Amino acid sequence: MATWIIIAILAVIALTFFIYYNRFVRLSHQVDNSLAQINVQLKKRADLVPNLLNSVKGYMKHERKIITEVTEARKELVNARNVEKKMKAGNKLQSALKSIFAIAENYPDLKANETFLHLQQELSAIEDKVAYARQYYNDGIMSYNVMTHTIPGKWFAGMYGFKKKEYLQIPEEAKAVPKVEF
Amino acid sequence: MNRISFHEEIKRNKRQSFFLITLVLIVLLALVYTIGFALGGDYFFFIIIFGTIFSLAYVVGGYYKSADLAIASVKAKRATGPEYREYNNIVEGLALASGLPKPKLYVMDNPQINAFASGRDPQNAVVCVTTGALAKLSKHELEGVLSHELSHIANYDIRFMTLTAVLVGMISIIAQMFLRSLFWSSLGGGGDSRDKNGVIFMIIGIVLAILAPIIVALVQLAISRKREYAADSSAVKFTRSPTGLINALKKIQDNKPMKVSGAVAPLFLAKPQREKEWFQTHPPLSKRIARLEKM
To answer: According to CATH, what is the number of the domain B75-158+224-293?
Structure first.
C-alpha cells in the first residue's frame, strides 16, 4: 500500500517538473516570437523610407540636414545585428521621421501630394504597430519574469537555467520632442 | 500573458459550448421523434432516420459554418480595398497587442454604429463593423470597439455566442414551421394515427414547438451580460486606455434601431433593437460607460 502512495507522490512531483519546464519553454518562445514581430514592423518602416525620401526630395531640396539624418538612421537600422542596436536604431529613425513630417507642414504642395500622404499614413500605422508589438513583448517578459520570481517557478528556473529577461526600454532620445529647424 | 489571464473564461466558454451543442442535439432529436410519432404510420421510420441525419448535419455544419452563417445573415462584405486601410491597420495593431491571429474583416451596410465578432476559435474568427461605425467613429473610438471584439475572440466568447445564435435560433424556426404545417394541413393519416398514442405525441410535439422559442430566449440570456463587461475590460487591457471605447459607447447611445435577425442580435456590440426587460442580452450602456470610466 505504502509503495503505491510513494509512487503516486513521485509521479506528481515528476509531472510538476515537466509542467514547469514546458511553461518556461513556451513563454520563452512567445517572447522570442514577439521580438521577431517587432523586427518585422521595424523592417517595414525601413523599407518605406526610400520611397518617402523620393517623394519628399523634390519639394524639400534645402532641408539637407534632416534628409541625411533619416538616411543614416535607416542605414543603422538595416545594419543592426542585435536587439539593443536594432531598438536604438529604430527609435532614432522614428524620431527623424517625426521631424520630417513636422517640417513637411511648411510645404503645402508636398502635403497635397498623394504619394506623400499615402506614405505618411502607412508610416503612422507602422508606428502604432511597433508600439503594440513592444507592448505585447513587454507583457510576455512580465509573465516570464513573474514565473521566474515566484514560488515554485523560482526553484525550477534556477534548475533549468531560465534567467530573468529585460524589458524593452525607450531610450531618452526617443522620448524627447524632435527639434525642428527651419 | 493574455492566454493565462483569459484561462478561466476560455475554459468556461469551451465547456458551455460543449453543453450547448449536446443540449441542442437532444432537443432537435426530441422534436424529430415527436413529430415522427405524431404523424405516425408509414412515415415514422422515414422521419426518424431523415430527422436524425438532419440533426447531426445541422449541429456539425452549424459548428463549422457558424461564422459564415452569421456574416451571411447580415449580408456583410469583405473589407478589403484602400478605403478600409485604417480599419485593417487598427486590427493588425490589436492583433499584435493581443498575440491573436488577424481575423477576417467584414463590413455591413447600416448607418448605426455597431460591430460583432463571430467564429468557432481565434484561427477562424471574423469581425464585422457597420458602415455607420466606420463613418461616425474617430480612429481612437474605432480602436476601442475593435479591441472589444478581439477580446470576445480571445475569450472564445465567439464560439458560445455564435453557436447559440445559429443552433438555437434555427430550432425556433423549425418549431415554427412545424406549428404552421399543423395548422394548415389536414392530419388525416389513416386510422392508425388517430389512436390515443398519436394524439398524445402530437400534443407533446406542439408543446415542444411552443417551448422552443422560449428556450431560445432563455439561452440568449445565458449569453450573460458578464461577458460584455468582461470584454469591455479586456478591451482596455489591449489598448491601455478606456477613452476610445467610452466615447464610442457614448456615441452609440444615439443609435436608432437596426433590423437584424433575432438570432444574431445578441452578437452585436450594442443591442440593435429594443428588447423586453427579461430578455436583455446586453447590459445597459450607461452602466458599461460608468464601469469603464472608473478605470
So the answer is: 3.30.2010.10
Longest CA span, chain B = 71
As beta bridge partners, residue B127 has B105, B117
Q: How many angstroms away from the CA of B39 is the closest CA of chain A?
A: 57
CB contact under 8 A, A132 and B93: yes
**Domains recognised in chain A with CATH numbers:** 2-175 (1.20.1440.20)
Best interface-test mutation with B: which of A24, A41, A135 has the largest number of B CBs within 10 A?
A: A135
Query: Which cell goes with B57?
Result: 448535419
Angstrom distance (rounded) from CA B142 to CA B137: 6
Question: Residue B129 in 3-state DSSP?
Answer: strand
Which of A3, A27, A145 minimizes the C-alpha distance to B3? Answer: A27
| Averaged pLDDT, groups of 10, chain A, 182 residues long | 91 89 88 88 88 82 82 88 84 88 84 84 89 88 86 78 76 49 44
For residues B30 and B171, give the distance between their C-alpha atoms in angstroms, rounded to a whole number. 11
Q: What is the pLDDT of residues B216-261, one digit of tens each?
A: 666 666 666 778 888 888 888 888 888 999 999 999 888 888 887 7
The answer to whether the Cα torsion of B161, B166, B169, B175 is positive or negative is negative
Which neighbouring-strand residues pair with B117?
B127
Report if pTM > 0.90: no
State yes or no: cis peptide before A50, omega within 30 of 0: no
CB B291 within 8 A of CB B259: no
Contact B134, B157 (CB under 8 A): no
**Residue that has been written with the C-alpha cell 451596410 in this structure:** B109
Instruction: Return contacts of B33-36, CB within 8 angstroms, 24+ apart.
Output: B34/B201, B34/B204, B34/B205, B34/B208, B35/B178, B35/B205
Please report, for chain B, the start and end positions of each structural domain, with discontinuous segments joined by +.
2-72+160-222, 75-158+224-293
Enumerate the residues of chain A whose CB falls inside 8 A of the CB of residue B4. 143
Distances in Å between the alpha carbon of B128 and those of A145, A160, B68, B133? 37, 45, 11, 10
Task: Check if the interface score ipTM surpasses 0.90.
Answer: no
Instruction: Tell me the catalytic residues of B.
Output: 149
Bridge partners (DSSP) listed for residue B115: B129
The shares of helix, strand and coil residues in chain B, as percent rounded to the nearest 5, are 70, 5, 25
Query: How close A29 gets to chain B, by Cα (Å)?
Result: 13
Query: How many Cβ atoms sit within 10 Å of the Cβ of residue B21?
Result: 16
Q: In chain A, how long is the greatest CA-to-CA distance?
A: 89
